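#onboarding

Welcome to the new folks! Below is a worked example of what a typical request in this channel looks like: someone posts a single protein sequence, and someone else replies with the predicted structure as tokens. Don't worry about understanding the tokens yet, we'll cover that in week two.

Example request:
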Amino acid sequence: MNYLKSVLVGLAAVIVICGILPTLAMLIHIFILALEHSFRDGGFGIAFGPIRWYAPSLAQWLFMLAVFGGGFLWELRRLAKRRLPPATDSTNPPIS
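Example response:
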């Protein structure tokens, strides 16, 4: 179960870092450009071309793998710290 939770955290890290954050940055950039050009030129428009899928480059795959591995190991380590220590044998108490 710990591995499943760690895989889910790794996937969530990839989605957030490689998907949501760049999208937010691009939307903020478009908003700033719209504000600059709307006052100067009297209007602002965005033209969309055909949507194309492209295969990620090796560097992008390695970055996504590093993000996934970081999220996976972070959650696995966090879950390992929360694990309870093993029970001690009552016939052999610890020496103080």
